[in-house]
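Q: Okay, next protein. This is Transposase from Algoriphagus namhaensis. I've checked the sequence twice, so it should be correct. Can you predict the 3D structure?
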Amino acid sequence: MSRYSNLPTLYDEALQINISKLKEWGYLIPNNWKASTLNWSRNGNQTASISIGVSTLEGNEYLHLKYNFRDEPRDYKVRLVKKPTNLGIGEMWFFRCPSTGKLCRKLYSIEGYFYHREAFKGCFYEAQIQSKYARFIDKNFRAYFKVDSLYEQVCKKHLKKTYAGKPTKKYSKLLNQIEKAEFVIKNEARLFLF
């Protein structure tokens, strides 16, 4: 008989439904009902697919999920809740977890249901289980491995670079990471020349 795995389940690898993505895709238009299919893929291969329906009709706001998990049909609703923003400008959408009752902006599917992360025991984020050496490498060389992504972010059309004549925190952080990456690249070139 084989041994049970002692590797922890990672939230980063779980299927996720994000309220921000639903808004971006046009599901959270007021007094509307929209249905379609969500697909997840990894390396170009589809890994999962579920049917969803979102109702934002006044007094009847919910996300309807319908899919199969290990050949067992799952069909349930997750309540959607609108709350005023902390700035008092507009409202934000949240999921109300069917298991914990907590409000959240992201649902994870770990044991076959999409719930708030606290509904699952023994799960971690990838950063929580990295070794000290892996955290050191990530901290010092992350910019090197993501330099192309950093340049794309800096060149985005709507990136706010300054506010009141001063660089924004986001823009300054991106420039700092690019500077670190270029420093690593220059030093790497010196290593290979000698």
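A: Here is a summary of the prediction. Residues 130-193 form one domain. The mean pLDDT is 86.
Q: Noted. On to the next one.
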